[in-house]
Write a structure and sequence with these properties.
Chain lengths: ~220, ~220, ~220, ~220
């Protein structure tokens, strides 16, 4: 029950952040005849909006997975969770900045730094739960923690590269952010039942995102 | 429980989108003596606001019905659900655009495209559940799926016609959007108990929206 | 469970509306030396803000009480509920208008009309539940419904008078809105346990709002 | 269940307020070459944002703790809770004002007054629950209430000092607000399991916020 209220609060924050993002897409104030051109000029904003929408969605998914293994919460966990929410709640600012100043290095860097901070906080929470098995449904095994390290390291490494590229190939930075997002989304999509994982090994979902419409037969 | 958190998040998004719509109705900045005329000029915005309010309400209702038959969720379902939420979360933008540039063809077309995208995503989710009976309380029968096809086809067909009419009879486009909304709302209102349907056949509610105040006697 | 999702959605809408109200209190853009005077000029907005905050809170309370007696929902109930939410969601607009154009008759009238529409919808829902005892935990007795009629009639009557007074004594209109709000809040505060009323008769709470700090002894 | 809906509504309000805070951090409108300098000038706003984020988070935590001991609610409790939410919902205004007019005495004073009002309301709710043991899971002991008095007195006392210092040492006021926040956060973080306190005595958490990463062994 305690956990449920933390989840309700966190779900609320995620739902609000993901919905507020649209408020930064201001409608243009132009003559009706110039509306089409004005909307085309907004495409970088739209791209940043969609990217950020799925970034927040991904963090919600990640939060869900962490919280699923928690059975009890303590004060420190609540503050760590709040710091995690801080870096997510902040997202409308870098998203709006990146949409307003596309291809500029400072907005790209700020966007990437926010992604890294949120990522690192998520990892700290995982470490904290590893050290506090009494808070978890099942104690986190060292092997399970070790399996997660490369995912965090690779995504944060790519974010750092993307920030660096902002000075020379800013379009590439966008591409890298989108690529990490797509990679993590496919990773999550392949989890058969993300909230009741089979113990011991993770069962990859044979149905691929791109294939399911084609209709695999399944018992 | 898993499902409940997805529902809580989705309910949050719907509740926020439906409430944010009012933020786009900015109060006019005029002399008090000109306030009445300024408010009358806002009527197209008010119409678009009310239309969009019920559009979002309708999608919430549809989400509720889909989610009711789900007993378990997987990664792909979560992303499909997020894409559905994306096209709903976007709604304040086309609504605001249509209110600001009434009778203009581009805003009418963007509004209709968003409705179609949301509709198609809802249908894809239904198809996905049909192909994954292990996620459902009861497997979706082919007959049940086939019954839904005309509803999606008719509403999307009318949206396409409305988009086309934007170039010659823009008022008609508004009328068609409103008509589809009204048709779907009455359809839903006639469902006796939308969340515990009798198996096998759907029981139409004899009480009509327009009649209930008149007071049908009921056991 | 069905009801719970309707409640979660409605609670979300109420929570968002009540919180969005503050967004209409824009901070003044003046020289620091002129800040004090600028803030004093905002007092009418602050008054309207506080009034609207408790109006929305009161409707949340009323929604809670209605929903408490419901055990099952149908399509019509969902739409009636959505219309009720519409008139609550709209509140930031009249509140903002009244704060921006204080003592002007049109904003006062629009504010009052929204209150009346929300009130009437609430009453229609009560009538609907009376006619559909199969949706309720206990059928609504005719006596109980009749007891509520004067409350609706008096509050709406006063709202109509307040709207009329806007043309001659606008300050009085504010006073009447606030008086109805205070009256209804005290009425609700006196309910001992609003969500588990004793059957047959309503027990008034002997502890008054103004007295409880003084410390009535209670078993 | 009744309580749960009050919690859901309150959680919603906290989640929205904490997320809305970012909307007041408007992106600067400058030439791309001046963006870095413009962002540096926004640092006072960022500081106020982070401070306010954790202030709201702290009140959410406090609300959670109060609500945890409640088993039943009455009308007066609902209004007291709503007044508490009012002083939290208002927060975006003083936060925005303080960010826009840093080091100015009026914004510092308004910020502090809001903190004091929220604090006092929280204390009144505790007193109310003490006087109404029938609403609580366990009656609040006089000793427990007396233990809380110094915390309220000290924090409010420091707020008053901070408001006074705004006229001579405004930076000090910020420092005092932040210090009280940090003190209360550490106090809460040390609670082992805030929502299932051992009866009779509160068990301090031996794990310190600053130490846990170093890895205390725990059974």
């Amino acid at each position: 029950m305690n956990k449920q209220r933390l989840e309700a609060f966190s779900d609320g924050v995620y739902a609000i952040v993901i919905t507020l993002l649209i408020l930064d897409i201001r409608i243009p104030e132009v003559l009706p005849s110039a509306l089409g051109a004005a909307l085309v000029r907004m495409l970088p904003q739209v791209f940043t909006y969609v990217l950020s929408f799925f970034v927040v969605g991904l963090y919600w998914f990640a939060h869900h997975r962490v919280s699923h293994q928690v059975k009890q919460i303590d004060g420190t966990f609540i503050w760590l969770n709040l710091i995690w929410l801080l870096f997510v709640s902040v997202m409308p600012f870098p998203a709006s900045l990146l949409g307003r100043y596309p291809l500029q290095r400072i907005p790209i860097a700020i966007y990437g730094i926010d992604l890294i901070l949120a990522n690192v906080t998520g990892f700290l929470i995982t470490v904290y739960l590893k050290r506090h098995p009494e808070l978890c449904v099942h104690p986190t095994s060292s092997a399970s923690l070790r399996r997660q390290v490369p995912v965090y390291a690779i995504s944060n490494g790519i974010y750092v590269v993307a920030i660096g590229l902002a000075w020379i190939l800013p379009w590439m930075s966008y591409g890298l952010y989108a690529a990490v997002l797509a990679w993590l989304m496919v990773r999550y999509a392949r989890i058969n039942n993300p909230f009741q994982p089979k113990k011991g090994k993770r069962v990859a979902n044979p149905t691929r995102v791109g294939l399911w419409i084609g209709g695999a037969k399944r018992g």
